């Protein structure tokens, strides 16, 4: 499994596209948080990274499918999947290796954003950041990235076209993140079902963790969604 993980890591950084994706993510976050007046953290009047944790999921919607779109579709297209089948590897080892390799790349992309927290802490005149909320939000962001990674690898396992894998991955991530919340706001569900429908969406659990309270139900939800998509991926790989 770790051999596949290392291969995924090397493949991503073997071309400029990997570096460009990471740079674009950090550049967009930096511009929106410190340059653009409507979203600048410096104009809030108090130390808070809430703006970053509201913006970051939308950027991850496009970053993560960029990371995962080649995971299996390139293997199919280039014929290297045939070589994987000749190795003493189970489909589960291939899938989990791909998952952890892509997730490490996503986590590495998030690491430099810790600078934002240190910057606001230094610039804050009184109080500083809420450590519990900030740590919880980073955990939520990492869990969100893990779900998007599982979705991206799953959609990549259905096609040998990387563009199709990217578009379908971004679309499914978008639906999971906002779809249930949008459906819950329909008048037909106003009698009380709206809350339970909203609970099915990723955004509800991401916002819950971002409050600084690590609830086991939120962790189990993220783990369950990840497992479902990786099992679907494993089935596709086994059928190939």
Automatic annotation (TrEMBL):
Pfam families: ABC2_membrane_3
UniProt keyword annotations, A-Z: Cell membrane, Membrane, Transmembrane, Transmembrane helix
Membrane topology: Multi-pass membrane protein
Cell location: Cell membrane
InterPro entries tied to this protein: ABC-2_transporter_component, ABC2_TM
GO CC annotation, single: plasma membrane
Organism of provenance: Panacibacter microcysteis
Annotated TM spans: 12-35, 55-73, 94-115, 135-155, 162-180, 219-238
Main location: membrane
Name assigned to this protein: ABC transporter permease subunit
Domain of life: Bacteria
Domain ABC-2 type transporter transmembrane: 52-180
GO molecular function: ABC-type transporter activity
């Amino acid at each position: 499994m770790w051999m596949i993980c290392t291969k995924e890591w090397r493949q991503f950084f073997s071309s400029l596209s990997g570096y460009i994706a990471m740079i674009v993510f950090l550049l967009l976050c930096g511009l929106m948080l410190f340059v653009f007046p409507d979203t600048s953290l410096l104009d809030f009047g108090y130390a808070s990274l809430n703006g970053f944790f509201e913006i970051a999921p939308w950027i991850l919607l496009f970053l993560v499918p960029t990371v995962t779109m080649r995971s299996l579709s390139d293997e199919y297209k280039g014929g290297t999947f045939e070589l994987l089948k000749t190795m003493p590897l189970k489909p589960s080892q291939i899938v989990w290796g791909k998952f952890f390799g892509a997730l490490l790349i996503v986590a590495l992309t998030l690491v430099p954003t810790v600078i934002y927290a240190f910057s606001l802490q230094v610039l804050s005149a009184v109080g500083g950041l809420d450590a519990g909320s900030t740590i919880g939000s980073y955990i939520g962001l990492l869990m969100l990235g893990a779900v998007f990674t599982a979705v991206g690898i799953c959609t990549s396992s259905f096609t040998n076209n990387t563009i199709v894998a990217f578009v379908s991955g971004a679309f499914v991530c978008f639906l999971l993140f906002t779809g249930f919340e949008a459906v819950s706001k329909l008048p037909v569900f106003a009698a009380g079902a709206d809350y339970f429908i909203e609970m099915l969406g990723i955004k509800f659990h991401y916002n819950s963790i971002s409050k600084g309270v690590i609830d086991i139900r939120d962790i189990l939800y993220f783990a369950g969604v990840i497992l479902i998509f990786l099992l679907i991926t494993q089935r596709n790989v086994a059928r190939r």
